[in-house]
Backbone:
């Protein structure tokens, strides 16, 4: 449980919690666009940006850099709960999804490529691109518009024995709903056991556990700027069998190697800071005696605290009405949806979404408008909406901040 005292300590570990360096005091409910950054990752970034040495040389600095990368990869493997495969960094989460999907599609022949209509274009665009280039059959599993998610049963109805590559979105950045990753993977493998399964975990990463042993997939991608680190890199885990397909490599270079060029040691080091933070939080709320155990305790605590926040936002707190009680307000994915992960998306009959976001911002409450464009049209267009307001929280947000949001919303409406 995150007590008020622990929440105060947690907030002290993040930069710009209560104030924007450009706007001044504000409530930060735009975490789905990029979470707050750990102070430790800011310090680590500056420290490594100043180091002139590269890896792979025979000198003390290069040896130290290689050790830092090795330790960071080991920490990331525990965070992913992966017992095989490898972790590596790339340009961004989107770039990594394209690389993994390209390797899987190009490394298989014939058969079906399978995704779902709930997915972000990071995975859908990659699958569509290579299906077109290589003449493959790309099929989409329809998501449930009312629930804002895709179910294992929906995948089971569409998957066929000749499905070669499948993609899964772990959590939607528009609806905020998490998919049952392990059950969807199991539904695919029950029909197509050798299918390569690649997961977009970018939105999910900050809201709870990643458990790749339970998921039984071949690739999982996160964007560290959405899980308390910084912009400028992505992190991917890949299975050994995906690597065996042969990703692009330099002629004569290391085999089974996914990285191109000299990697930023600071990227690895800042992701190690993220794992260290989960480790620390787990120690505050549980008594596990292993790093993975503490990471699991932290994940469960994060999920519970964020449910408290979203429940208050939907159903009210103190004498303030929740969004679900406000006339003319409609909640994407429904009000009482157990799949919700720290995010509430809504529209109002009497006010344009952009106007609500602007009015909230003027009162120091940062949210975001999602438009029915190439990013969110797959969710909003079937609902008959051109835009919606996204309010996205993380575990460092407070009940008082939710109350501030509801107070301003009452004035706006």
Residues:
């Amino acid at each position: 449980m995150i007590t008020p005292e622990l929440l105060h300590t947690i907030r002290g570990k993040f930069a710009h919690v209560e104030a924007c360096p450009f706007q001044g005091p504000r409530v930060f409910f735009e975490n789905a666009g990029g979470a707050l950054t750990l102070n430790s990752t800011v310090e680590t970034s500056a420290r490594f940006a100043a180091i002139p040495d590269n890896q792979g040389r025979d000198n003390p600095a290069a040896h130290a850099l290689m050790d830092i990368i090795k330790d960071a990869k080991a920490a990331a493997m525990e965070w992913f709960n992966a017992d095989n495969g490898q972790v590596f960094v790339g340009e961004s989460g989107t770039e990594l999804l394209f690389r993994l999907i390209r390797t899987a599609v190009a490394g298989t022949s014939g058969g079906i490529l399978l995704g779902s209509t709930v997915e972000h274009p990071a995975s859908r665009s990659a699958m569509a691109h290579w299906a077109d280039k290589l003449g493959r059959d790309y099929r989409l599993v329809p998501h449930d518009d009312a629930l804002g998610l895709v179910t294992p049963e929906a995948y089971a109805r569409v998957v066929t024995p000749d499905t070669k590559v499948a993609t899964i979105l772990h959590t939607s950045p528009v609806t905020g709903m998490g998919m049952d990753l392990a059950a969807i993977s199991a539904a695919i493998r029950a029909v197509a056991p050798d299918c390569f399964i690649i997961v977009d975990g970018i939105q999910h990463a900050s809201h709870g556990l990643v458990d790749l042993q339970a998921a039984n997939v071949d690739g999982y991608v996160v964007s560290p700027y959405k899980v308390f680190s910084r912009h400028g890199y992505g992190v991917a885990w890949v299975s050994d069998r995906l690597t065996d397909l042969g990703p692009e490599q330099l002629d004569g270079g290391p085999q089974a190697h996914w990285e191109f060029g000299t990697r930023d040691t600071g990227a690895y080091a800042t992701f190690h800071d993220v794992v260290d933070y989960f480790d620390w939080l787990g120690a505050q709320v549980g008594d596990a005696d292993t790093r993975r155990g503490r990471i699991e305790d932290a994940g469960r605590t994060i999920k519970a605290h964020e449910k408290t926040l979203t429940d208050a936002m939907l159903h009210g707190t103190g004498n303030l009405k929740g969004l679900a009680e406000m006339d003319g307000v409609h909640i994407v994915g429904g009000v009482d949806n157990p799949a919700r992960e720290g995010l509430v998306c809504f529209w109002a009959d009497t006010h344009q979404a952009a106007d609500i976001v602007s009015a909230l911002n003027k009162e120091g409450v940062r949210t975001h408008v999602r438009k029915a464009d190439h990013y969110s049209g797959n969710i909003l267009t079937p609902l008959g909406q051109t835009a919606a307001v996204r309010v996205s929280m993380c575990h460092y947000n407070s009940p008082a901040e939710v109350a501030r949001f509801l107070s301003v919303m009452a004035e706006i409406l």
